[in-house]
Amino acid sequence: MGDIWLIGLMVLVYVCFPKVAAQNLIKNPRDQKTEHTLLINEVNADSPGQDTSEFVELYHTSGQTAHLDGYYLVFYNGNGNRAYKVLNLQGKVTNSQGLFLVGSSSVNPAIVIPKNTIQNGPDAIALYYGKGTYKEGMSVTNYGLVDALVHKTKKTDRADTLVRVLTPGRDAFLEDSTFSTMDESIERCHNADSQWIFQVAVPTPGTDNHCILTSQLNASAVLISEVLAASSSEEFEFIELQGPHSTMLRDMVLVLIDGRTKDIYFTMDVYGKTSLDGLLLIGPAESKTPVDLPFPENTTRPVLRGGPNAIALYRGNSSSLVPGKALPVTGLLDAFVYTTNDELNPELLETLTPGRPAYEEKRHQLGDMSMSQCNCCSVTRDSLSYVLSRPTPGKFNDCPSKRFSQTLSFCLRVADCQEWLVKSEEILMTLVQALDGSCSCGVSAAYFKEPKAACQDQGLVFTTLLTAKSEDQLSSLLLAFKTFLETPRLVSFDRRNITAESSCFKDINVPDLPPGVPSEIPEGTQEPSVEVAKLLINEVNPDNPGGGEDAEYIELFYTGRTRFDLQGYWLVLYNGKNSRAYRVLDLSGHHTDELGYFLVGSSAVSPAPMIRLPPNTIQNGADAVALYYSNTTLYGVNMAVTAEGLVDAVVYTSRMLEKADQLVRVLVPGQSILYENDSHSTEDESLSRCHSLSAKLQSSFQVTTVTPLGENFCSRSSALAPPAVRISELCLASGATRYRFVELEGKPGTSLGGLSLVFFSGKEGKAYGSVPLRGTIGATGLFVFALDGGHGHDGTNLTFKDISAASEGSSAIAVYSTSLIPGGTKATSENLVDALVYTCEPSPAGGHLDFFGPSYAVPCKDDRPVSLSRCACGNASAELQFAVSDPTPGLQNSCPQDAFAVDLHLCLLTPNCSMWTLHHRRMLESLGRVLVSSLEENCSCGVSELYLQELNLTCVGSLVKVWGQVWARQLEQQQSIETWHQGFLASPHPFSVDGRVLKTSPECVAPKNAPSVSHSDGKYEAKLSIVICFQLSERGQGHGQATSPCEKGNAGQATRDLW
């Protein structure tokens, strides 16, 4: 019902707000639907000849894969105003960029239509959503209308009825008929005021619209757009100019200059008409690629030389600029200087591009590579505006796009910060060199937008938007940036070495911070960004006084305190009664304000929200708000609560008796639900982030007065005490390795004074070593102690050599809030802060260290180092547990993930179900230990019982059915689990579960469809169904006496009955 109301509201908004009376102005963003939707993106209704290249391109504004169920595309004839073609898009899906193509077979569309189907005009194309009856022959309607384009080919054409019904206040779009000799389309773009417009351009079916606005092209100077140099006379070379579209160029001269001597070595007059996109291609006449202006006859090839070299465009003619003559300083329109070494003449730079460096030509990739201008259309005489790209002669340049972008931020530790504020370009060039040296991606300064510098705490924070040409390139660049900041490093500026780090925050105790300023640096959560700054839920106001509920809102905050692109983020609202999503908002295409705030809320909220919701949308509780990030997962209404892609969450209620246990378990495990105090009945209040910048931490919030799009009103007295320090990771010695450490976690700035780290032997339950702790938890929330005489990242080390797991019994490491504990002291719970018990061989027998908690088994036979890492239990358990993992000192723990899950289905034969049903939990635990032991014995890939998720069983008659999952940390480990499974099924494998001998049966037949591998939007995800049939015998009973559906051909059927 909520979806129907939403559709009705969207239609009402579309119909009731008149459009500005401009031919190509579509609508003001404030008047259009605030959530992402499907739009008509490009139309080519009239192609040269027999209309064999016509198409309609749709675009989902999320920029991601989207299902088109419920949408209809309708084509109207302006003569009679009736539909001549209707396409039902049910079951169709856009591509990964949100594009969907309908058209002639030549454009490779998702839906093919016969040639000459789309009428030239005056006609219309309309997009509808809903359950209306849309069929050919129907009269034009605005019922369920989402978007429409009324178009014509002559100025005198009229389509009054279509305009009145579909696009009131907006005239039919004139597809300019002056370009009769070449193909063109009507493309949707944003204008300078961020309003949607349509304009005429070169067709781009199935790819991004070029969207260089006609007004920009007409106003721009002629500039050097692309350069491809050749190494021999046989290779293609060209220079491409860009200027006003379809315009005659004259009285210009192209000049080539030797970068070492400053001598002119080539000139030619420039004349000719630019293309529809404003391009003019200059190159050899005999090339396979047709050029607009050929090089003069008898020109020695290649014309363009390798660097150092310069290209200049002057007003005038070639007679005034002859080889050997000095370069003039007047009449210069544009210049591009490039080099491969340091031999460039500095006077040449000062003449052609004063104050700007030359472009450093680097060839990282095989094949021809152009140097392309990527800051169209007003930036001239700036070589930093160019990037290395694939050649695109006569077409728009292959440039990085904001579609593939990420904000980066890092800190330079400088004492004189104010002096560095003017050095943004120098800082940016240092970053460019570091990233390009790391990934060899051909990155240059033009990949970075909106560089900003600001003083903060103990240094200068530099923030910039990194753009890329693809997801793969963006991933490579982000990995290079992560490497750049993995450890504090020295970078050189003006012969001064400056330390670059991820954050400028200093490690101080919480009380030293001023009131209202969050005191904790975010911990390492799984987020898209590799920098310290994060996007968080900052304030939630779900319940307003009275019955209007028209001032509800959710506020997000980017901790980098700058404009932040929300591409890939989702906001999901969950109902606590069924733990399912009742509202999903795709935030792609939106961004925060300049201070990092983003507001979603009702219309009465002031300041106005960026996304508006109907009144009474946000439920009062017990419910939840969750923030996700994913480029592959599609979150939808009515989905079950999930932690996949989770960035932050708040679970709340306005009534003390209401609970949302499942939401708490999945979103904020081990924590309590937040209570929005309703005692302020005459005054509105909200849940505001006040105590930390930690994600998914309920204690970060308190009840305050409302402050939408402003700093939260936090009282100093309400600040919570820092959480207890706890053990995050223990790296144990295995074999001859000396790689050992203990990692603690806690609130940044927490002092370790007064705490002791104690090592216990389980044989007698006594301490055999103790060290008093010192120092404070750093900005990352982690503190690492090296245990081998080496140094942790804090410089602290211990000298215990025997920290390996005991071959018999258990060992433990514990943190106590007391002074040094003497050796031989028995383990006690008094003053205990945290503890971890570990062993080589798990034993059901009790021990002296049992009160510390569960004992975790670790593989002791390998020579490689192995860690026990604190991880969230995937089965939504309220308590964090430890898992075997690779060592990650000072970094986020390496934990098993459901993204690398292997589905586990077991089928067992038993003479008697009673043991399995009466001792359900014990049998599950025993079976889990056996499976983990078998897996680790086979693959030695470092798994433990936490890798088994949601293990369960049923027993009916003589058949025991077991199901669950095995998670992995990474793809390689998942593949090892798959190999184990294949070997497990290939031959009989006897083992014992709680005294009962089990054996795989070669006669057991698995379902044909059991193994499955799936791919999701380019991100590899595999789930392997494992169906195993066992024969089981109790001691003292004969084997094979019971019959079961699991025998021979019936095994597959038995499993299908369950699954």
UniProtKB/TrEMBL annotation:
InterPro entries: Lamin_tail_dom. Keywords: Signal. Residues 1-22 form the signal peptide. Residues 1040-1059 are annotated as: Disordered. Residues 523-654 form the LTD domain. PANTHER family: LTD DOMAIN-CONTAINING PROTEIN, SI:CH211-183D21.1. This is LTD domain-containing protein. It comes from Mycteria americana.
